[in-house]
Amino acid sequence: xxxxxxxxxxxxxxxxxxxxxxxxxxxxxxxxxxxxxxxxxxxxxxxxxxxxxxxxxxxxxxxxxxxxxxxxxxxxxxxxxxxxxxxxxxxxxxxxxxxxxxxxxxxxxxxx
Length: 112
Prior knowledge:
The protein has helices at residues 77-80, 86-96, 100-111, and strands spanning 8-23, 29-34, 48-57, 60-69. The protein is α+β, with helices and mostly antiparallel strands.
């Protein structure tokens, strides 16, 4: 547990994702805010993250809420899973700016 500021009474993280149970009028899963998101269980990132906090500044409590949408254009190959040899390894190396010879030297170094 971390103390953000001594005046902060409450701090909440929420995640916007697709509902497991409810559908919208078009038959698609509704989006809903949840208090939990587990990257090992979910196949996709939440659509947005909401950060809310309450603090007493003077006589009146203040509340703030920030909602941030998440959007990933090109996730790094390491995030998508381990790539094993062949064409996939060549693509990974091109993305990382490495050539075939450099990769072979690296692999030989690991085998020692």
